[in-house]
Write a structure and sequence with these properties.
alpha+beta, about 375 residues, Transposase DDE domain-containing protein, Tnp_DDE_dom
């Protein structure tokens, strides 16, 4: 495994493509989720050396047995772990993509997982399901396209606390005039553009704040009530509405993603890694996911049927390869064949041995 990290990752992807060819994954609904697996650890020595290393690197935490591992919240307590990401196809709950990172949460993983999954299914229509932990504005905008539908619930508790009836959801947006209308009919016209943490937004501020009788209930800001609208907020609003209207599909997410993790962690007891370093741990993840898929396919199809599918695929791949070779070298084959035919018809005249057939020798 040490010297075959790239090959093992390619093997996992090739096996996934085979599953697609067998009709075992279709990419119509793919659920994305992450889990924490503990890093390999041993007795910690020389605390002074560790303290000095933290001081030099500026890091806040360090695992002495595996510098790539991070302290993460796992099952209600903090442990030194890696974050394992998977994308699971809904048809037979097979893993179509996996990755291992040392980020303590999932907020930066959505775009990468969806894009890697789309490499398997290309422009096919895919519905991706993700939980609230993946909710990140920039990641969401980067994911959604014509062939990808995302269902994800927004995070709660992000809005400022205001009196009942004055929540942001009670303000309607006028797309024609680019303004907000409050519940009492007052306008909040556009004021200025801004950018924060990579997010571009537009600011809308109430112009009738001084004469409004509800200003004390609406906001405590001296300048009046303001609303911030993100650049692509209509996309976010559409995703929120789609998630709400397709709640029956979104509810499948937990059952889809928990099948592989439940099998590996509870049934197999695979709760920690045996290797060190992010690259080696990633390879270990590919192997365990490959083992899960293989055992799962055997259970679905049976050994004999799986052998037949493998044989058919090898035979088809061999014939396709031969066809491609013949197509690529068609001109060479044709020229060689023509030369041999002309040689026979002209008794070797093409090669300069004369156009007249050799005389027949008489035996006396």
């Amino acid at each position: 495994m040490k010297n075959n990290k790239t090959a093992i990752k390619k093997l996992f992807k090739e096996f996934t493509l085979m599953l697609k060819g067998f009709g075992l994954v279709d990419g119509q609904i793919v659920a994305i989720d992450g889990t924490k697996l503990k890093a390999y650890q041993e007795r910690i020595h020389e605390l002074q050396v560790i303290k000095q290393e933290l001081k030099e690197t500026g890091e806040k935490q360090l695992c002495v047995t595996d510098p790539d591992a991070k302290s993460m919240k796992n099952n209600g307590k903090h442990e030194v772990c890696f974050n394992v990401q998977t994308a699971v196809d809904s048809k037979y709950k097979l893993i179509v993509e996996c990755d291992t990172v040392n980020d303590v949460n999932d907020q930066g993983q959505l775009s990468n997982m969806v894009k890697e999954t789309k490499e398997i299914f290309h422009d096919q229509k895919t519905t991706a399901l993700a939980d609230t932990g993946y909710y990140n504005y920039l990641e969401i905008i980067d994911v959604v396209d014509e062939s990808t539908e995302l269902l994800i619930k927004p995070q709660k508790g992000k809005q400022n606390k205001v009196a009942s009836g004055f929540d942001r959801t009670n303000f309607s947006y006028d797309t024609i005039n680019d303004r907000y209308i409050c519940p009492f009919g007052y306008e909040l016209p556009f004021k200025w553009n801004g950018k924060q943490n990579g997010k571009e937004y537009r600011r809308y501020t109430c112009t009738n704040f001084d004469i409004c009788g509800q200003k004390e209930s609406c906001t405590s800001a001296k300048g009046g009530r303001s609303i911030t609208r993100l650049k692509d907020e209509e996309v976010i609003e559409q995703i929120t509405e789609n998630t709400r209207s397709q709640s029956d599909i979104y509810k499948q997410r937990a059952a889809i993603v928990e099948h592989p993790f439940g099998t590996m962690k509870r049934h197999w007891g695979y709760t920690y890694f045996l290797t060190r370093g992010l690259a080696s741990v990633g390879t270990e993840t590919n192997l365990i996911c490959l083992a899960y898929n293989f055992k799962r396919v055997i259970k679905i199809k049976g050994v004999k049927e799986l052998i037949r599918l493998f044989r058919d695929r090898v035979r088809t791949k061999f014939l396709c390869t031969m066809f491609i070779r013949v197509k690529l070298y068609k001109s060479r084959f044709t020229a060689c064949l023509n030369k041999q035919l002309l040689d026979r018809l002209t008794y070797g005249g093409v090669r300069g041995r004369g156009l007249i057939p050799p005389p027949t020798r008489l035996v006396t």
